[in-house]
Specification:
Blueprint lengths: L7 E7 L2 E2 L15 H8 L12 E4 L12 E3 L4 E5 L8 E6 L3 E2 L2 E5 L4 E8 L2 E6 L3 E2 L3 H10 L24 E3 L12 E3 H16 L5 E4 L4 H15 L19 E5 L11 H9 L5 E3 L6 H4 L7 E4 L2 H4 L3 H4 L1
Antiparallel strand pairs: 1-2, 1-3, 3-8, 4-7, 4-11, 5-6, 8-9, 9-10, 12-13, 14-15, 15-17, 16-17
Bound molecules: zinc ion.
Amino acid sequence: MDMWRIPVAGGLLLAGAAIAAPRADVPSQEDLPPETRELLATAPEDTARGALTTVLVDIDPLGAVGPVPWTVHSVPFLNVRSGPTTGSADVGDLAGGSTVFGDYYLVVESDEEWLSHTFAGTERWSSVTGLTRPHPVNVENIATFGNLPYGTEIVNRWWGLPLDYEPSDLVPVPPGYAGGQTSRQLRTEALSQAMAMIDAMRLDGLDMFISSPYRSGPTQKSIYDGNVASSGLNQRFSAPPGHSEHQLGATIDFARPGGGFLNNTDPQHAWLVENGARFGYRQTYTADNTEETGYIEEPWHWRHIGLRETGYDAWAVR
Ligand SMILES: [Zn+2]
């Protein structure tokens, strides 16, 4: 699973003026101080947005990359609207596969995210639920190496992978490590290290299994579109296509033998915190990095970042 929360830039768009905030001090929506909440509540009506209040979101919290377009994953097209709400006028379409530059806003009243962009010379809006944004470094590394080198991939709420990226070295996870299931896949090194890790855990008297490993871009799109359709544009539990670490084929949601994802109180989690690095595995989303990653803490979600990254040698471990 990938579940996120939103880092909101301190810059508020009030009466059409964006105020930049220091990057080092980017509060989340929940952390907005009472004064800001009050300011938002009493913000003057902006004619471009009707009565809605929009807050500029920092979509590059890991560092400035420069303007990078969003790609439309909606098919056959994404609606362009006069305001940041599905209740506003439908004024055009962005074709599936096309790209668009824009500013990313949170709409306070609806908790929805909308991209402000120039369409036919006028400021218009499209829901970000139809957009994805591959990171230029990922695109370049795929062109150079084919499969992305472990640990170099940049995947978070704001940056992602091309939807058609699929590692060529995916192999089936043996049922004994997958809770009896036969359809699960991981990249070769990610799998061999995960199996060695589970073997080592079993020698210590604990057990867990690989519950959710690789998911393709199209699979993630199907899951995401379904969740948006059923839970609304403001759902926060499903990652957009291209923005899930599971597409790397190097990331695993671990579950307890009886079922259910690992949580902070499970001895298996404590074991992973102590030993995961020996096998190149790291918990991606911790309580300490929610601002940087845009995701909530996920004790069950571990990613293979390569053995050199963690300072251990593959053969010395065995
Ligand atoms: Zn996950």
